[in-house]
Write a structure and sequence with these properties.
Elements (H helix, E strand, L loop, with lengths): L7 H23 L2 H8 L1 H39 L6 H26 L3 H13 L2 H5 L15 E5 L2 E4 H6 L1 H23 L2 H22 L2 H15 L5 H9 L13 H26 L5 H15 L1 H7 L2 H4 L4 H30 L6 H29 L14 H21 L19 H5 L1 H7 L19
Antiparallel strand pairs: 1-2
Helix pairs in contact: 1-3, 1-5, 2-3, 3-16, 3-17, 4-12, 8-9, 8-17, 9-10, 9-17, 10-17, 10-18, 12-16, 13-16, 13-18, 14-18
């Protein structure tokens, strides 16, 4: 803990990192660095590109850190109140979709107009907004002191929870290595051959699966394995679809040729409204289902949603007089966005319910991190599939002949053939029930002694409780 808090100052530091990255982006833009790099040659352009990537990484780091800290807290709430089901997830998704709607309104037009510096200024303001709530202590957590058992004072204001670390040493090490795996894989795929990247990803995934099997309870491992299989089964060819829809007339004659204003903004606004509606739909009609049927239904519907893309690429809609703009809006913006939200909510609920007592943020970060890592690997695999298919997505000699086949195989067939069997690894419980019984699995008694002793401490033990916390969190 820093000055007695585990989350507060870590969140503040992440905000400062995000502000630094965004400030550097603005400085590069207004200093004319892009024009200078073009004049100086390819090496200078590459260095500038690397700096820009680092800056965007800093901005995303802030968002990811704040997100995972909040997720750890609502994972704790869901464990303490299993009867709430996916209500907290739906609440979070509803506000996230509303925010997406607001940002989508201006991103497309500003991008088309080339006003990227305006987007950077907006990002700077948004990065700064969480600073005061975090500084004021709006994240509910208990003040830690060095009088607690197992606590070691490193220096003024910094404590080290040695007891808790010793109790959960291996999980913490594995989770830390998992966090390092994504940038490692990104570096490998950027500077090495694609095949080397895929081999590295396979080795990392197998390593994490073996470690999870030996460290966590068997029920946790089965759910974890289901997540890995499901996400790996969704091989991404979305980048090729994006190129196809926005390609010029020279690249795709008589194709959709969507502008970014339409592709990003118009469909994004409609999609955000649909996403918000999907949250309400899920909460009212699907939140009382068991996990297995709701996941299977959303996987099947999600696979069938790609039929719209297939119809547009094959130009069947034009043959019967339906414009691309209309079908894409009704299909992709409405149907696919709705399905995406309906799939995301139960998976997020599973991530939250997998978190064991005392390690909510860390284990939530681990499971979400593995899911994102698998998504990253599926994107890399998708890039390889696109490359090996002979598809050409840019230039005046584009070739999208293989795209319909890839859609049928990797967006319709594989998700159902791989994802549905994997769902049966998830316990078939109601969303209002515990997903994992940690006491029965032997985790709580063996691994939560330090956490329990600190969480149930009082002033007589030298612990100070945060008065902002609700009674059930103390």
């Amino acid at each position: 803990p820093i000055r007695g808090y585990n989350k507060k100052y870590f969140a503040l530091y992440s905000i400062l990192i995000g502000l630094l990255g965004c400030s550097v982006l603005l400085g590069l833009y207004h200093s004319g660095a892009t024009e200078m790099a073009v004049i100086q040659g390819e090496d200078a352009s590459q260095r500038l590109a690397d700096i820009i990537v680092i800056c965007f990484t800093a901005v995303v780091y802030e968002a990811a850190a704040l997100d995972i800290l909040g997720e750890g807290k609502y994972a704790e709430l869901m464990r303490n109140h299993p009867e709430s089901g996916s209500s907290i997830i739906s609440f979070k998704f509803g506000w996230a979709r509303l925010g997406s709607l607001v940002t989508t309104i201006f991103v497309g037009p500003l991008s088309d107009a080339g006003y990227f510096h305006v987007l950077f200024w907006i990002t700077l303001v948004l990065s700064l907004m969480p600073f005061y709530p975090t500084l004021a202590g709006w994240i509910p957590e208990r003040l830690r002191t060095f009088q607690e058992p197992g606590m070691v004072k490193l220096c003024k204001g910094c404590l080290y929870d040695q007891g808790s670390f010793q109790e959960k040493k291996m999980p913490f090490i594995v989770i830390t290595l998992c966090g390092l795996s994504a940038p490692l894989l990104a570096a490998v795929t950027t500077y090495a051959d694609l095949a080397i990247g895929l081999v590295s990803a396979a080795v990392l995934l197998i390593t994490f699966l073996v470690a999870t099997y030996y460290i966590f309870p068997r029920t946790f491992f089965r759910v974890f394995l289901s997540i890995v299989i499901g996400y790996m089964g969704s091989v991404s060819v979305g980048s090729a679809l994006g190129y196809y829809y926005t390609a010029s007339e020279e690249c795709v004659p008589n194709g959709p040729n969507f502008s970014y204003t339409y592709y990003v903004t118009v469909t994004g606004i409609v999609g955000s409204v649909v996403n918000f509606s999907a949250v309400i739909l899920y909460q009212n009609f699907l939140s009382n289902w068991r996990f297995r049927p709701v996941l299977i239904v959303t996987i099947v519907i999600g696979s069938l949603a790609s039929i719209v893309d297939l119809i547009i690429i094959m130009r069947w809609n034009v043959a019967i007089g339906i414009p691309d703009l209309v079908l894409f809006l009704l299909g992709n913006a409405v149907f696919e966005n709705c399905v995406m939200t309906l799939q995301a909510i139960p998976f997020s609920a599973i991530f939250a319910k997998m978190a064991p007592p005392g390690m909510e943020s860390a284990v939530f970060a681990y499971t979400v991190g593995i899911a994102n890592f698998c998504g990253m690997v599926s994107s890399i695999l998708g890039s390889g599939v696109i490359q090996w298919s002979g598809m050409v997505t840019v230039g005046d000699t584009c070739d999208f002949k293989a795209l319909p086949t890839l859609i049928v195989i990797f967006r319709m067939m594989v998700p159902m053939l791989v994802g549905i069997p994997a769902i049966f690894l998830v316990p078939n419980v109601l969303q209002t029930e515990y997903l994992i019984d940690w006491e029965e699995e032997g985790w709580s008694q063996a691994n939560s002694d330090v956490v329990q002793s600190s969480e149930h401490g009082n002033e007589e033990d030298g612990l100070k409780e945060d008065s902002r916390l609700e009674p059930h969190l103390l």
